[in-house]
Specification:
Blueprint: E1 2-13, E2 16-27, E3 31-35, H1 42-50, E4 57-62, E5 65-66, H2 72-78, E6 80-82, H3 95-105, H4 110-123, H5 139-151, E7 157-161, H6 169-184, E8 189-193, H7 197-203, E9 206-211, E10 214-219, H8 221-224, H9 228-233
Helix pairs in contact: 3-4, 3-5, 4-5
The structure holds adenosine-5'-diphosphate (ADP) and magnesium ion (MG).
Magnesium ion binds at residues 42-43, 85.
Amino acid sequence: MTLLRVENLAKSFKGLRAVDDVSFEVTEGSILGVIGPNGAGKTTMFNLVAGALRPDTGRVHLGGKEITGHAPHRITAAGMTRTFQLMRPFYSMTVLENVTVAVLAGGAAKRTARETAAEVIARVGLDKWRDAPTEGLPTAALKRLELARALASKPRVLLLDEVLAGLVPAERTPVMELLERLRTEDGVTLVFVEHIMAAVMRLSDSVLVLDLGRVLTSGAPEEVTRDPRVIEAYLGEDPHAKA
Ligand SMILES: Nc1ncnc2c1ncn2[C@@H]1O[C@H](COP(=O)(O)OP(=O)(O)O)[C@@H](O)[C@H]1O
Ligand SMILES: [Mg+2]
């Protein structure tokens, strides 16, 4: 079943077509990898889909309901949320407080918010840091916190913007395993923007390639990454290399 459907989405910034007629569908329980060079429009596309920006044209449907142009909190309530490439937790709070705020923002009852937050923190492997101040957390823990904040609303669809960026290879593997478990055990549908091709190859059921705001191609990871146009866009990087 198609859970997320994006049709002909477009957004210009002062004449620059950041996202230009982008369409794709995501099947429930699947993982879609989104790749493309810097400036391709990946983050802008997430902003349009998750409601941070209103598209100039196009439509977004979640679970058969149109959510185009809805505010982010409404889209979260409808079952879809995202992480930010540039993380912005409340640095003055602890990890538990940060996730509790996110749980409450997701519309949960006050009474159970801390409990739910603690569960989500355990889910992402942050127990060790639960009561630590957010300021001064290592990058790997901050990335997990960003995941926890997004998971706080119990989304059906999670949009991940470069969650592996800034992690050393040894830190990436457990995060990839966590993402796989979110899909298999929690049934979360994932759309993830990622530069690290080994992660794209490992996690994605299908891959969407953006370039200059447009869909360059899409399909199975093995096919897409053999496309000469994709290889050209990633000069010097062998998408089939092992992590
Ligand atoms: N708020 C904005 N105002 C003006 N230009 C923007 C804005 N956000 C993104 N852009 C431009 O849109 C293009 C796509 O950016 P972005 O979506 O961040 O790409 P990606 O995430 O693929 O690197 C870039 O040329 C970028 O400079
Ligand atoms: Mg980006």
